[in-house]
Amino acid sequence: MASPSAIVRRALLYVPGSSRKMLDKTISLNVDCVAYDLEDSVTLGKKAEARSNLRRFLEQPRPSGIKEQAVRINAVESGLALEDLIEVLKAPHLDTIVIPKVNAASDLHFVTDIIRHILPSRHNSSKMSSPDTKPIKLLALIESAKAISELSSICKATPYLSGLIFAAEDFALDLSLTRTPSLTEFLFARSAIAIACRAHNLPSTIDLVCTSYKGGEGQRILKEECLGGKGLGFNGKQCIHPSQVEITQQTFAPSVGDVEWAVRIVTADLKAAQQGRGAWTLDKKMIDAPVVGNAKHIIIKAKTCGMDVSALQQKWSNQEPE
What we know:
The protein has 322 residues and is of the alpha/beta class. The chain contains 13 helices and 10 strands. It has an 8-stranded parallel β-barrel, surrounded by 4 helices. Strand 7, helix 9 (215-232) and strand 8 form a beta-alpha-beta unit.
């Protein structure tokens, strides 16, 4: 199976679309993805104002520190999604739509059909498509038992789906669960989402929100949750406060040690291949095709995260297989 494309969403930060002050503050942030929100953080009476705010905000020059600008619309079942899409799709600097409460493939079909109708030039399947334009990507929030049972059909629903996001609080509500510090009550759902993303070659698997963010203890819990999610196969995490971004992005990026090890492996493997060796050793550890494949993936991700890989490649240019 091919590796997922080099899209990086280590941190996905939610920002209320109804607050112009908070929208303006994001301009100075350095974050992989900002999801400007029209759903949970915006009251019903503020929806129209928030839509207008986001359309105008996303008409401004793109902030240099934000890699991806997304909008979380209201759920399809709410009846508000169409109005959200009609307004925000007017904005030229919109990259991605985040869709909450995706319970079936039909939710993604609805959004895809609306985007194709309003913005045919942004989709490769359209005869009006231009090679210079990029399709609007979709991220689906998984929030219920039904969604977990429909993961396969959800992942295959649209070619524009770019990842899944686990919404722990709504999932807990659906199953009458109590969230605990260990997060073991979410283990099956989180594992299912991570596996489904990989099985369908989706670039992003974005983990639950950490509700603790204040003080040293909040930062410790955040770090612990990031490591736990990374260990399950997630490659990013939702954030609800800018103070969570730095730790989250650091944790979901490869460490310098991991990148250095990967560079040594890839460099030595080229020489091993010239010698006709499919398996060899490095620092007394066996290296074979799966290890080399993982090393190449680490290097790609490190470059996407802005790490200086070239310096390490130069440092280890003489690495030989043992």
